[in-house]
Amino acid sequence: MTDTRGAKQGYESFSASPLPNERPAGQQQSQPYHPPHAYAPPAGESDSAPAGGGGSGQPPQQAVRRPRTPSGARTVPRTRKARLRVAKVDPWSVMKVSFLLSIALGICTIIAACVLWMTMDAMGVFSTVGGTISDATESNEGGGFDLESFLSLPRVLIFTSVIAVIDVVLATALATLGAFIYNLSAGFVGGIELTLAEDE
Hints:
Layout: H1 9-16, H2 43-48, E1 81-86, H3 91-122, H4 125-136, H5 147-150, H6 153-189, E2 192-197
Antiparallel strand pairs: 1-2
Helix pairs in contact: 3-6
């Protein structure tokens, strides 16, 4: 039988053509082979960069894509917010703070009472009102009620100081008790939620 398929020219020509990832036969061996890229480099980089990577064996740098933003657009900074929850209050710290605040409030009360008494005395309020009350309460057996001696400055300061001391004790006790009650209620409902934000 005779072989009618002929010479293997088709196979030889097919094998002679290089594959996509193989280097051509006529390319020089001194330079590394770089496969073709899907996207062509920008015009500025193709002219400045050498074709063979400068002979250093490194591949050419690819173009970095940047997001397109309008030239006149201004970036507005976002305001950061934090959502917090007051889960527990320390009763000892509440007692100390409330004690100091109530002492400051008591001192302010004493000073305000002293200033108010001096102002009313300088305006002649005590003498006028005291004379009217003395005339209204005067009887044949004796004089009337002396308002000026009853509302003297030392007596007013003593009365105001007693009120300030009572205010200090009650405010401290109520604030500490309120801290315990808040801790009990926070265990059931979760506490007070706060949203904190930075200043723009």
